[in-house]
Amino acid sequence: MRVIADRLPNLRFGKAYEDRQYLPVREVRALVDTPFAWDVTDEGRAKAGRHPKPSEIGNDDGWMRGHVIARRKVATDVVEIVLAADAGALPAWTPGAHAEIELPNSMIRQYSLTGEQTDNGQWTVAVLREADGRGGSRFMHDDLPVGSKIRVRPPRNHFPLSGEGPVLLIAGGIGITPMIPMLAAAEARGRHAELVYLGKSRDGMAYASEAQARGQDRVTVWPAQENGRFDLAARLSTVSSDTTVYCCGPERLIQAVEQACEKFGLTCRAERFVPAQFDDSTNEPFEIELRSTGEVLPVGAGETILSVLGRRGIFVQSTCQQGTCGTCEVGVVEGDILHRDSVLTKEERAADDTIMVCVSRCAGKRLVLKL
Ligand code: FES
Hints:
The chain has four domains: about 1-45, no CATH class; about 65-155, Elongation Factor Tu (Ef-tu), domain 3, CATH 2.40.30; about 165-270, Nucleotide-binding domain of ferredoxin-NADP reductase (FNR) module (Rossmann fold); about 280-370, Beta-grasp domain (Ubiquitin-like (UB roll)). The chain starts with a helix and ends with a strand. The protein has ten helices and 22 strands. The strands form six sheets. The chain has a six-stranded antiparallel beta sheet with strand order 8-7-10-5-6-9. By secondary structure, the protein is α+β, with helices and mostly antiparallel strands. The structure holds FE2/S2 (inorganic) cluster. FE2/S2 (inorganic) cluster (FES) binds near residues 320 and 328.
């Protein structure tokens, strides 16, 4: 109840005092029911650290107000949506970045930015309709016409083009979206870059012809219905050892690419949109210490660091709460981390200096957080 009251500061009984009914109980009274009601005002939202709807206010708390300026179908079940700021320009982005978009129904979703990197202050995303998803993609497809109001936060990039040397991009399905600008950027930097684009059927593969137009010799578009199964191991066995492989797509593809890269000693970077699966039954309790105050808080086996911080009144921004967006990242000063996110690279995990508090835990007894 305390957490609910913190998050809904206007929470109150939904029935007037005189309308409440009581059950006859020996010596004490018991309410027949306890309806609650609340008004989520701007003040209440601010107190609870939540974000008002796009229609309610403009820029605040890092959010920027914008709207849909164009949309078109780019494949079966894939819609491309172009966004612009209501005033000024949307922030610049780098290839591999994802945008955080708040829809008019208050859902917040992340999508990779795609298309040409221009300086017109507009963003383009492409969204696959996920019939069994949580509703964000359905809303983008069915209820977000041109002119719809949205809010966005500045892009984050956990999947940047890094290092030197050749680049091999492997995209599966809608995982093509970050790869189009990454391919262009790698080429612009004079790096040898190739793209392998895998999908089930050609008409379901967004931007297939745009990708192909970048060069038959460097781009492979592979619809399995036409060509059968793609031999990943054979493809990866031919690349030079200084190649960095980037992969975005379904988890099964990412795992196959990671395993093949391991086998051939290649550096692999992956962008995941689905949470990694873990067995929570093996969770152990541990403690977190807040560096700023020295306060120590216990985290139970069934709790997350994020929930413990929230209960203590320490607000950490969190969007996906599944370890896939990187919003809840917190610095770690001391302690071994049990990483369970899908954002950090192998090297970043090894550094043990940052944690996604929505899913990751402590591998020992205590973590000291930069909070
Ligand atoms: S809230 Fe998205 S990674 Fe934690």
